[in-house]
Amino acid sequence: MPFPCYGTLYLGEDCKRSQRCVPSCGRRFAEEGLRMRIGYYNHTSSISGAEISLLTMTSHLHTAEPVIIGPEGELGVRAREFGMEYLVLPGYRARLSKNPFSIARHMIGMVVEGWRLAACVKKQNLDIVHANSIRAGIMASMFSWLHRRPVIWHIRDQPPRGIVGAVIRKFAARKADKLICISEQIRESLGKALEYKSTVIYNGVKADFADDQEKQQARQMIRAELGAEQETLVIAIIGQIAPWKRQEDAIAALHLLQKQNHFAELWIVGEAKFREENKQYEQHLRRLVKELGLTGKVRFTGFRNDMKEICCAADLLFLCSDNEPFGRVLIESMAQKVPVIATRAGGVPEIVEDENCGLLYEVGDIVALAACASRLLSDESLRKEYGQKAFERVKARFVIQNTVMQVENLYDQSGQDRPLRVAIVHDYLNQRGGAERVVGVLHKIYPEAPIFTTIADRNELLAELADADIRTTWMQRIPGILSKFKLFFWVYPAAVKSMDLRKYDLIISSSSAYAKGIRKPKGAVHICYCHTPMRFAWNYEEYVEGMMIPSFVKRLAKVFVPFLKGWDKRNTAAVDALIANSTVVRERVNTYYGMHSSVVYPPVDLSRFGPYQPVQVKDYYLVVSRLVSYKRIDLAVAACTLTNQNLIVVGGGPDLDRLKKLAGPTITFAGRLKDDEVEELMRGCKALLFPGIEDFGITPLEANACGRPVIAFQGGGALDTIIAGRNGLFFTEQTKESLAQTMRVFDQYEWDSTAIHAHAEAFGEARFERELKEIVVHATMEKNASLPHSTLVGRNVELD
Predict the structure, then answer these.
(1) Would you indicate the residue range of the signal peptide (predicted)?
(2) Does 747 score more than 70 pLDDT?
(3) Which of 31, 160, 357, 685 is disulfide-compatible with 165, CB 3.0–4.6 A?
(4) With a threshold of 0.70, does the pTM exceed it?
(5) What is the pLDDT of residues 433-485, one digit of tens each?
(6) Edge-to-edge strand order for the sheet containing 151-155?
(7) Whose CA is closest to 768, among 468, 440, 420?
(8) By the 8 A CB rule, do 242 and 278 touch?
């Protein structure tokens, strides 16, 4: 399957399209004299305002080639009359229902139709899918991962309210690439979450304006056909006959006008279709006409194709709808210099300027409607004035050329400016540590990328992830999972495989365990930032040492180690590019997996520390860490107790109770603190103690950023970050005596806090972003990708 193209070139296999590239931006098509093939999907073949707007737009395209997709029927007939390619799908007209069986049936129908459409788009090699309604958009987006083409929803109706509307908005936020709204009112109804995806593009009419002679001829012809006198004042209400269109208000207003001696006629132009309730409503209207004695004064014309001529023959247009999203009939009438009276609701006020080119009234206020009509029917000069201003407003804002230009610009953006679909994957987000800070920086680089993880504790999220789109797996629903997450090591592989990443082109996993085991979509690029190979599998004894669990549980768990090693090795082999977070991790990757990896040191958020400012150093050492056994905080506690040195331990975790039992009177356990409190302690400490073997270790560099040195064990990631005598010291054996000995010689050194701070600056976030982007570009090129650099690397942000 070809990989998508979002820029001037194309990412994936070699382009197999003869004389065309799959899909490319408008600029490339323009340069090569090619036209983008846009698939316009309509889920029904019946003709209404949405279909008329679609046909008007597609018949006026300049740089795009339309391919209409829909059921056989009237829409197909008209599209072929325009000479457009029409691909037939069965279509599916889903209905809102309270019946659970009906809901299930409609969902199945939409899924089947969605699959047919995705297969059609892929087979036809279309460049963009343009769905002509919300329902069409849902079906077009269901399986968009199959063809990986941009999907644009053209939203022409108000989204449903309640739970259904909320579900649709959430689905659109995840699946739609762009949203076209036909009015600002519709855009606002979508909510803030969809604002960045949505663009308002008004419907347009053909610049086919009747001159006075043509208008007079149409007036004579239509009135003769419908049996209306040439001198009679005619009011038209045009549109589908439906309760929400409120044609009964127009009938009631005409009744009031008759009482005021305005002997006008009302034409109800349109038909009742789609629903049984609409047909029943038409019968209600016909009965109402008889009851009010308006027989002969109200004419039901049925559906008409000659809308221009109908408008020319009318003197006034009513639009009485509850909440009209736009009101295409308004601009069609205004284009022929017909003044309008319409409800002050929906998108109508964006078209009709009250007291300028028409009059507005409140929905359902029949007396106000009749008063507005009386005013215009009584004053021919005012009708002409409003008609002329209406005509000028349509020419300025609502001609089809404006619509087409904006839509084709949107197509260009969908190809040229759309970034790769990026997903970030992390093992689990239920703690705060260096790995989670890496995820936070990845979120800064790719702010629109969702973060997939097995479980997440919202109370433990870093502040920089507060606005992130975090998606958990079914493991999140396991009782007690957040506190006992390590006991479920045997189910994480299945949870990671269940993540649905089919729509994403670039997947960046942040992994010290399971995240690199995702199911990579065909053609996608998977880059793994490896904090360390899975400790549980490759260093089991050390991993469980000191954990407060029964020995039989440890023995039982060891049974799974061979399986996890095999699983880890197989999934790592499928990764396109491995990044190790330190030299020691690179060595482990080579030893365990037999694979090459690049080293990119983790990002250190130096911005929160600000410029270095000298402070008074106080008489205490400091530990900042999660309190788990492999961190070896017990060495720091024991060494400070042995040497009678003050130690402040910041952090929490399962090893806390054991550490308290080891601690002497000089040890203080401060618990978890806010960042500014930790920073204050770092600035005032003698040194940070770092006794464990860490894969990298961001905390020592944070202490360096505060101008303070580090005493670390001579192993692991500390070898990459600490230069003995410049920004810290090493102890050589993981014993309390070795650490105590180094602490005794610590005071013999003179520490230059300014130089220590400068050393930390070399490990800032900007450096991480730059090096990561280089690897992303290289890995993508290795997979035969040819995207522009700006598209590949994500959003440029100021990180340092």
Answers:
(1) none
(2) yes
(3) 160
(4) no
(5) 788 989 999 999 999 899 999 999 988 888 889 889 999 999 999 998 888 88
(6) 85-88, 64-70, 36-41, 128-131, 151-155, 178-181, 198-200
(7) 440
(8) yes
